[in-house]
Amino acid sequence: MTRAEREHVERVKLLPCSVCDTGGGYSAPSEAHEIEQGMWWLSVALCAECHRGSVLGWHGQRRIWAIKKMTMLDALAVTIRRLMGY
Q: What is the pLDDT of residues 27-42, one digit of tens each?
């Protein structure tokens, strides 16, 4: 990971979850999920439950994703919009 990639990922982690809007900031940082392994510029801000939760999470049964009707690209779009300040 390059310095620029590390800085980008740290900015992503400060955002609220792109799926459920919880967390964000230094007190409750999000996790940065790479859409494709090693592609740090395509990191998505996710809370632990939306990322790794066994029922709700992306690496689980993805129920929150189905409820919100979101794909990983939808979550990436939210992350990018927030990084841009919109």
A: 999 999 999 999 999 9
Query: What's the distance, CA 12 to chain centroid?
Result: 7
Read off the tokens for 14. 């400060």
Residue 47: CB partners within 8 Å, gap ≥ 6? 16, 17, 19, 20, 22, 23, 30, 31
C-beta separation of 80 from 86 below 8 A:
no
Q: Can you give the three-state secondary structure of the chain, one letter per residue?
A: CCHHHHHHHHHHHCCCCCCCCCCECCCECCEEEECCCCCHHHEEEECHHHHHCCCCCCCCCCHHHHHHCCCHHHHHHHHHHHHCCC
Identity (one letter) of the amino acid at 8? H
pTM above 0.85, yes or no: yes
Question: What's the length of the chain?
Answer: 86
**CA-to-CA separations, 13 to 30, 45, 63, 66, in angstroms, rounded:** 5, 6, 22, 23
